[in-house]
Specification:
Layout lengths: L3 H23 L1 H12 L21 H6 L10 H9 L7
C-alpha cells in the first residue's frame, strides 16, 4: 500500500501526534484548567488539530522563498482572542 518512504513519513507523523498527546496529558497547567471547568459542572471535550507539512529539503532557502506568494488575512475578534491564548501577537 505505502512505499518505504511513505511508511517512514507516516511513522514520523504518528510519532509527532503521540508526542503532542503525551505533552497534553503530562501538562499540569492544562489538567488544572480542565479540572476547574469540570468542577463548575461542565463536560470537556478537547480537540486539537495539527497541520504537519513534510517536504524534502532539496532546494536551497533562497529558491524556496522565491516561490512563496504573499497572502492577506483578515482576523476577526475570535481569531485575535484565540491567538492571544497562544501568546501570538498578529501583525496589525
Amino acid at each position: 500500500m505505502f512505499n518505504e518512504d511513505e511508511t517512514s513519513i507516516k511513522n514520523m507523523i504518528e510519532g509527532v501526534a503521540k508526542a503532542i498527546n503525551q505533552s497534553m496529558a503530562d501538562s499540569e497547567e492544562i489538567q488544572n484548567v480542565l479540572d476547574n471547568i469540570k468542577a463548575q459542572g461542565y463536560g470537556v471535550d478537547l480537540l486539537l488539530a495539527a497541520c504537519i507539512g513534510i517536504y524534502k529539503e532539496n532546494k536551497d532557502e533562497t529558491e524556496r522563498e522565491e516561490n512563496l506568494e504573499p497572502i492577506s488575512v483578515e482576523l476577526n475578534q475570535d481569531d485575535r482572542a484565540f491567538l492571544k491564548t497562544l501568546n501570538i501577537k498578529p501583525y496589525e
